[in-house]
Every structure is written in structure tokens, then in C-alpha cells.
């Protein structure tokens, strides 16, 4: 397992200047083409989203008042805090902020190779063996399996299917604890 703190990750500015991305992991690490990727994006203003052909995306707003994602006649949804929103990365989307800057947790998987499910959790989570995943704390403190230091807001762990799975469950240690759990499985 690999621990991270979002604030210590390097922020790469978007080419269009509308935001920055802090990459948690791009698997395989150092690979030319990712099979799956996790990141946190800070969106500063309205503008286009980059298209990722052949990729399925799950976008979860973690701070801010909402983001409308739209492609004329194809897609029109508003992302709200804590509600995972899945869509094909092939779409050329425009983002419209609903009240100023925001932050989002993103999971992208190469279609046909990996599949992802993202859940907002407030209780114990036991990741299945043989799956990759990301556990990202939004609020409170969490026990992160046997032998791990507690995690606080903005911190988390990621692992790939070949890594040792987290020992035991992720469990809240404080009232009101909230996290996002992304389960990433290989497609047979």
C-alpha cells in the first residue's frame, strides 16, 4: 500500500489554465499508457475538460457548490458534493462552476481492461483481495487497516491488485468521518 497526502502532491496546471491536477497514481507507474489513474483536480473556472478516448471516468466533487458537465445533445449532468458521477472519457465536455472554485476526486480506467466503482462511505470498508483501489479521507479520522497510522482529511492509501491488500477494514475513528473508496477491478 502507498500512503499519500493530497497537499504534498505536485499540482500540474492544465493547458487551458482552468485548473490543476494532483496525481495520486497512474498505473502502471512510469507506463506510457495508464490502465487506471487516480487524481484530485482543483477547478478554478469554467472551461473545457480534456477528452480521454477509450477511458471511463468517475468524477466526485469533494469541495465546492457543484459543476455542470455538458456536451451538446449527448450529456448534461451536475456533479454535487459526495456524489460520484460516471461518464465516458470520450466526451468533449464543458465544465460550468456553480459557485466558484471546486475540488474533485477523479478515477479513470482504460475501458475493457479495468472497471471502477466509487462510493462515499461513513462506515467500515473491507477491500476485496485481488483488486486495486484508493481510499481517500474527506472528513474525520480513519483506521487504515492493521499496522497503518490513522488517516486524516486529505490523506489516503492506494494499492494495485498485486500489492498486499489492506489488512482488515478501513474504519472511522471519529464521529462524522467520511471517505471515498474507489474499487478498481481487472476486466476478464
Automatic annotation (TrEMBL):
Superkingdom, natural source: Bacteria
Matching Pfam families: HutD
CDD domains in the record: cupin_HutD_N
Protein's name according to its UniProt entry: HutD family protein
Amino acid at each position: 500500500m502507498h500512503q499519500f497526502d493530497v497537499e504534498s502532491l505536485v499540482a500540474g496546471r492544465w493547458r487551458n489554465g482552468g485548473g490543476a491536477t494532483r496525481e495520486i497514481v497512474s498505473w502502471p507507474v512510469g507506463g506510457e499508457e495508464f490502465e487506471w489513474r487516480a487524481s484530485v483536480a482543483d477547478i478554478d473556472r469554467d472551461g473545457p475538460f480534456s477528452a480521454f478516448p477509450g477511458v471511463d471516468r468517475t468524477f466526485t466533487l469533494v469541495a465546492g457548490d457543484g459543476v455542470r458537465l455538458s456536451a451538446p445533445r449527448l450529456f448534461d449532468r451536475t456533479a454535487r458534493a459526495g456524489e460520484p458521477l460516471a461518464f465516458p472519457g470520450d466526451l468533449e465536455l464543458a465544465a460550468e462552476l456553480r459557485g466558484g472554485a471546486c475540488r474533485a476526486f477523479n478515477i479513470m480506467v482504460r475501458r475493457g481492461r479495468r472497471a471502477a466503482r466509487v462510493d462515499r462511505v461513513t462506515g467500515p470498508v473491507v477491500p476485496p483481495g485481488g483488486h486495486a483501489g484508493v481510499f481517500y479521507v474527506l472528513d474525520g479520522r480513519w483506521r487504515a487497516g492493521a499496522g497503518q497510522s490513522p488517516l486524516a482529511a486529505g490523506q489516503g492509501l492506494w494499492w494495485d491488485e498485486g500489492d498486499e491488500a489492506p489488512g482488515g477494514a478501513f474504519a472511522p475513528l471519529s464521529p462524522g468521518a467520511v471517505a471515498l473508496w474507489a474499487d478498481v477491478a481487472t476486466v476478464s
